[in-house]
Structure formats: C-alpha cells, structure tokens
Amino acid sequence: MRAIKEIAKLTGISVRTLHYYDEIGLLCPTAKSGAGYRLYDDKALETLRQILFFREFDIPLKEIKAVLENPALDRNQILQMQRKMLVEKKGRMERLIASIDNILKGENSMDFTVFDGTEIRLMYDAIVEGMSDGQRQVFVDYYGSMEAFKENFLKNAGTAKMQKDFAKLVEWYGGKKEFMDKTRQKGMGLDVVTAYQKRLGEINKKIARKMAAETVEVNSLEVKELIGEYDFVAKQLYQMDDVSGLMLEIAKLYDENKELQAEMDAIYGEGFSKFFARAVEAFYNRKE
User: Fold this and answer.
1) What's the whole-model pTM score?
2) How far is CA 161 from CA 10, 56, 86, 110, 223, in A?
C-alpha cells in the first residue's frame, strides 16, 4: 500500500487532484489508515495511470469514468483503445517533427496531413457510395456534375485547413477506420437531416428564452436539460456515439467567431452565442 503523498510523487499529480478523483468516484483509495489517510494498492495505481493517459487526450473525467466502469471492457481492451489513440497521436507528432526539420533546412512548410491522396480518393468514393439519390442531386445542382464535385472535393481535401478538420473528425469518431466506416454508411435522406436541424433550432429557441429570463444561469438544471437534449439530437444527426468534442468545438466557434456570433445573435437574441458557449462548457464539465 502506498500513501497518497507517495502516489502524488510517483505520478506527478497533486494530492488535491487525487482527493477530487475520490470525491467523484473516479479513483477511490483501496483503504484508509487508522489515522484516516488514503492508501492505494498496485491495482489502483494502474487505474490512475490509465486515467492520466486518457487525460493526455483531453477526454472529460466523466467519460473516462464511464470507460473504466464499463463491464464490457477488460484491462486489455482499455489498453488496446489507449494504444490506438497513441498511434494516431504518434503519426501526427511525426508529421509535425518532419515539418519542423524541413523548416530548419529552410523549407517553409508544415505538414498536417491526416489522409494522403489515396485515402482521400477512397474517402470520396465511400461518401458518394453512401449518398442517397436526393443527396447526389443536390451536389449535381450545385456543382453542375458529380465530376465537378469530385474535382472540388479532392482539391479542398488536401489543404491544411481541411486536414486539420479531418484530424478533429478522426478524434471524434475514435480513429481513421471508424471515420471511414461512417462515410460508407448509407446517408440519411435530406428530409431526415432537415428534421433534425429544425429540432436543433427549436432547442436553440428554448435556450434563448431561458437566457432572456436573466435569472437563469448557464449551469442551471433547466439549461443543462436543454443542452442534454441538443446532445441527444446531435448524436443522431452526426451519427456519433459521443459528440462532446464536436459540441465543445461549436461552443468555441460561438465564443470566438464574430461573424457567427452576429448571425446567431440576430436569430436568437443578443448574447445568445456567448450564453450557448458557456452552457455547453458547463454541461460537458470541461472547466474542472
């Protein structure tokens, strides 16, 4: 058994953080000494290492808790999950290191590539294969033909901005394979997508009414219930098991993008964007 101060020294996290993990049931001490001090065995230390690894990827504590408590996942499955995340991160880091090496050699380029040219073409084929006839027609009407859409897609998919967006999608879906698998699924009909978007708009109106009440706080139960409803609909719309990363990215845009703020505030009322962003952050507990 190790005392809490020894655990803190071994792992580099504070005693206060270990107390907090105990309070929320994420990592409880194995036992307590006669004087009431928390004690941890080797199994608890291994669990803590798993927690700290997940935290390296900015995964919220409540999601880590859900993973560790999932009876369907054993130790090896969790380690495989963590290894897969690490491999994805390693690939990104290697590309960044190579880019820095190139800059040191006098080349002014940064490589944020997530999908190479071959993978992008496979992605395009998968996306088109998953489209309904109605969705194909939308692209034909907009671009003039599917060939024109393909040319535009392949051109834009290779840009640094799109590759950064791909990196986020890969993270949200849990890996490149998972993301590619989603693109191969038959897409929803446009009427279904429109219905989901309309429902999200209705939730926004409810949130705006709560904001207008002025006495309602972003972390109140009634606002959290609305963000929870938004979370549920977003999962159906984007076909994701977890939309926390996406929602927090949207919140960041609402908080920082002036044009988007103006657009959303014009629809839902002055200050809506900031209120929505704070409500999302409160719901997903990222400010721990």
Assistant:
1) 0.44
2) 40, 24, 23, 12, 33
